[in-house]
Amino acid sequence: MNNVTRCPWPGKDPLMMTYHDTEWGVPLHDDQGLFEFLILDGFQAGLSWSIVLRKRGAFRQAFDGFDPEKIARYDEEKVQALLQNPEIIRNRRKIDGAIRNARSFLSIREQKGSFNDYIWMFTDGKTIHNHWREESQIPVTSSESDAMSKDLKQHGFSFVGSTICYAFMQAAGLVNDHLISCFRHQELINL
Predict the structure, then answer these.
(1) What b/e sequence results for 63-74 when a residue is b if at least 16 CB atoms lie within 10 Å of its CB, and e otherwise?
(2) Cα 182 to chain center, whole Å?
(3) How far is it, in rounded angstroms, from Cα 36 to Cα 47?
(4) Is the dihedral of CA 114, 120, 121, 125 positive or negative?
(5) In terms of Cα–Cα distance, which of 58, 41, 25 is closest to 171?
(6) Minimal CA–CA distance to 27: which of 170, 181, 178, 151?
(7) Which of 5, 38, 85, 180 is 20 to 30 A removed from 135 (C-alpha atoms)?
(8) How confident is the model at residue 169 (pLDDT cuts 50, 70, 90)?
(9) What is the DSSP letter of 135?
């Protein structure tokens, strides 16, 4: 797949290229998968996605496969173990935020029936297909990510500013921000 035209941001990094080609922008409707992206995007704050992506397997192992029910029960002993784990991003505020977000996630799921139904309401249940020609045209926030951020915060979430929410929307396919020249743009429209 090296002879295709893709968005410039993966560069020549094989891991980033695979992520771009197979995951980024694909509509995700699995509660646990959505939770994983939300948590990883929170850990990305202030860092590059390639750092988080390289640590994704270690995060999955350290955070019990991103099972929100298990994470919601983490105690101080578990937090200390995570802070000692050199394979993940060891930031106390982000770890505490992931635990708080797991509890908030479960609350939303209980209220709404599924997190999927809740999160996709911000795009009326469908992917927003943008038609950007240049990377510089892609926004870092939108009215939808602003609304999502505000509502998530009201539900007790942290590390969910509008920029993080927009990155989450891109990753989970609520937004198709592949450039129109990228082979994935039309593929995702055709899904």
Answers:
(1) beebebeebbeb
(2) 21
(3) 17
(4) negative
(5) 25
(6) 170
(7) 38
(8) very high
(9) G
What's the rounded Cα separation, in Å, for the pair 86 and 80?
12
Q: Tell me if residue 136 falls in helix, strand or coil.
A: helix
Task: For residue 114, give the amino acid letter.
Answer: S
The structure's pTM equals 0.95
* H or E stretch at 129: strand 128-129
- Over the stretch 1-26, which tens digit does the pLDDT of each residue have? 568 999 999 999 999 999 999 999 99
CA atoms 160, 135, 49, 6: torsion sign = positive
Residue 22 backbone phi and psi in degrees, to 5: -120, -20
In this prediction, residue 128 has a pLDDT band, given cuts at 50, 70 and 90, of very high
Q: What is the pLDDT of residues 84-111, one digit of tens each?
A: 999 999 999 999 999 999 999 999 999 9
DSSP-based three-state secondary structure for 25: coil
Burial class of 88 by CB neighbour count within 10 A (0 to 12, 13 to 18, 19+): buried
* Residue 83 · residue 95 · CB < 8 Å: yes
The answer to whether 55 and 62 are in contact (CB under 8 A) is no
Q: How many residues appear in the chain? A: 191
Host H or E run for residue 175: strand 175-176
pLDDT of residue 140: 97
Q: CA–CA separation, 50 vs 10, rounded Å?
A: 9
